[in-house]
Amino acid sequence: MILEELSNAFGVSSVEGEVRKIIVEAVKDYVDSWRIDTIGNLFVTRRRRIETEASPLKVMVTAHMDEVGFIISEVKSSGLLKFKPVGGFDRRILLGKAVVVGSDKVPGVIGLKPVHLVKRGERHTVGSIDSMTIDIGANSDSTRVKAGDFATFATQFGYLGGQPDAVSPHAGQVKGKAFDDRAGCAVLVELLKGDYPVDLVAVFTVQEEIGSRGAKVAAYAVEPDLAFILECTAADDLPRQSDEADEGFPRLGDGPAITVMDRSFIADRTLVDLLIETAEAEGLPYQFKRPGIGGTDAGAVHTIREGVPSAVVSVPARYIHAPAAVLDLTDFWNTVKLMTAVLQKLPAKEG
After folding, report:
1. Domains and their CATH numbers in the chain
2. So which residues are the catalytic ones?
């Protein structure tokens, strides 16, 4: 599936070219046009296929191509690489992880002192990122890496518990890196195959993880009537300290997660109601993202020009912003079904 290609692709913020190329190849034969802007956003247009008497709405649907990663800040005389984070990380998950560096995807490992050498006072502490290095097995003269190159985790996409079969082709769980937001990108690729009474402008944005920079440019250029942002959000169905602890949400397998509010955005109530009503009419499961945490491209999109009515729909996944995340394929395909039905129900433009 397209999610596998997208997850395996290298695409840290500002170097999303490999991801963009995969998407173009996937959609170019059944869309009306596509273009790339100066900052790297990919705009793909599929014009109205279901005729209405009035003019069609211009609906922008976005998903960001970039992933969290690292930028090389220094090549030491030993050949070890100093690095800085690109996007948000919990540094506890970095030590000992396999990575790839630069356009040549040079393999490396984030160094970790073995337990045999750890002093008693070090056993329960995690050093700062500034104290970490990437080892690519080179000295400073032989390395193919330079300061300013990017790195990401070397995780490969895979199925947990076996691949889907003919009986349940859309079931099962998968693991991979960069599901935030390659899952949203994969949903958007599927949506571009549908027929709608609106002009659909799909925008695969850049640099979301460092401040939604691509989305600001894109929304200003498109000037949409309304917008949907497709995301991958953190599932919170993890083990609790006690049986009495509240169950977390969103949960894997419970459907797409609808955002009501996050740290940078309050969703348009009319669009939220449309998502809920459509899910219930179609018999699709849905849930809500935990309010008040995180942020998405919607924070930028909804404030552009005179304002853009916006909503966010997310595929939940465990362990995002880490070397490997896990998502449920039923959530992925139910997100595709929900958004397809919503786009088909949108009215024509008034006036």
Report:
1. 2-67+156-238+248-345 (3.40.630.10), 69-153 (2.40.30.40)
2. 208
